[in-house]
Amino acid sequence: MKLMSYNVRGLGGMAKKKEIRKLIRELRVDGCCIQETKMENVEEMMVRKLWGKGKVDWAFKVAKGNAGGILTIWNTEKFQKSGVWDTMGMLVINGVWIANGMLCVLINVYAPNNMKQRWELWDNIATVAEQYNDTCVGIIRDFNAIREPGEICGRSQNTVVKAMDKFEDFINLSNLTELKMIRKKYTVDKNWLTQVLKGGRRTLSNHRPIYIEERKKDWGPKPFKLFNWWLKKKSVVEGWCAYRLKEKLKALKFDIKQWSKCHIGNLEAKIANTTEEIEKLDAIDDTLGLDEEEISERNQLMEKLSIVMNRREAELI
After folding, report:
1. CA gap 30, 252 in Å, rounded
2. pTM, two decimal places
3. Nearest to residue 76, comparing CAs of 97, 104, 47?
4. What is the pLDDT of residues 106-115, one digit of tens each?
5. Statement: residue 59 has pLDDT above 90
6. Strand order in the sheet with 195-199
7. 89: burial class by Cβ within 10 Å (0-12, 13-18, 19+)?
8. CA–CA separation, 10 vs 5, rounded Å?
9. Interatomic CA distance for residues 46 and 31, integer angstroms
10. Model confidence over 204-252: pLDDT tens digits?
11. Phi and psi (nearest 5°) for 167?
């Protein structure tokens, strides 16, 4: 089981869609929980472009104006849906994890900024968690809240601290446990403690993607098999007039690689360098906090990253 959660701060742009598709493909996730899509409708074509090849199903909660919006996508060969329903701030999907027949519930959450509405949402989540007490419940963020004042380094604390006691009560009532990682903390259901929680890079959104996966034993590299008949198969183009076409395509491939290295390659280097600078500021923010100048610098870097990634997408079209 491998899941990804990502608050994308708007899913309308082509660059963000490409970034999510890249993450899904590289991580080979079984499910993806996206928050703050800011979309009133999610079409099948868009979901399949995000997911790529393979059998897929999805459920979504519409955004209200330019706020909110939740999307959950999963591999139908790994998870069989039994039911879907939504309420304020959360999308609930219950079903069966096919590999082991385990009943489970995925709750994709995006908490509102309004404090009273947020408390109401937490009460609703606690009720759902109690309703599925004998089932594995996975509550995927964004809670939009903290447990300790130190978690808001570099920001004003006077408005957020008021909700800490209420959030702590919600965590205890829902049997949630905080998994601590290097420089990052997130809260998940205690039934999922056999999972490993990792935080990804911050790119086009000001939130990091989160990955949840099962702990697996490393048995070393898989053995490679070689069948003798592979060596006996002759090239189908040898001696044919198609050989000339193959050579022309080979030369064209070399020219395309050189062009790509001169144009796209430079953009990739800029993306890598800008991302590295953002990560350095994130590391400072997670430990000491950022001053106003550093916060401004990080915002400028994220804007620069967005421009460069959009330029790369435009050149690929």
Report:
1. 38
2. 0.63
3. 97
4. 888 888 878 7
5. yes
6. 56-61, 70-75, 31-35, 2-7, 210-214, 195-199
7. buried
8. 14
9. 16
10. 777 878 877 765 555 556 565 555 555 555 544 445 566 677 777 888 8
11. -65, -40
Q: What is the pLDDT of residue 77?
A: 92
pLDDT at 74: 93
Q: List CB contacts of 69: < 8 A, sequence separation 6 or more.
A: 11, 35, 36, 37, 38, 39, 40, 60, 61, 62, 63, 110
| pLDDT one-digit tens code per residue, 9-35 | 888 888 888 888 888 888 888 999 998
pLDDT at 56: 92
* Contacts (Cβ under 8 Å, ≥6 apart) of 117: 88, 89
What proportion of the chain, given as a percentage, has pLDDT over 70? 70
Label each residue of the chain as H, E or C.
CEEEEEECCCCCCHHHHHHHHHHHHHHCCCEEEEECCCCCCCCHHHHHHHHCCCCEEEEEECCECCECCEEEEEECCCEEEEEEEEECCEEEEEEEECCCCEEEEEEEECCCCCHHHHHHHHHHHHHHHHHCCCCEEEEECCCCCCCCHHHHCCCCCCCCHHHHHHHHHHHHHCCEEEEEECCEEEEEEHHHCCEEEEECCCCCCCCCCEEEEECCCCCCCCCCCCCHHHHHCCCCCCCCCHHHHHHHHHHHHHHHHHHHHHCHHHHHHHHHHHHHHHHHHHHHHHHCCCCHHHHHHHHHHHHHHHHHHHHHHHHHC
Q: Residue 248 corresponds to which tokens in the numbers above?
A: 């022309």
Helices 164-173 and 115-131, interaxial angle, to 10°?
10
Range in 156-160, 280-284, 285-289 with the lowest mean pLDDT: 156-160
The alpha carbon of 316 is separated from its chain's Cα centroid by a whole number of angstroms, namely 23
Roughly how many angstroms between the first and final C-alpha of the chain, as a whole number?
Answer: 34
Amino acid (1-letter code) at residue 22: K
Q: What percent of the chain has pLDDT over 90?
A: 10
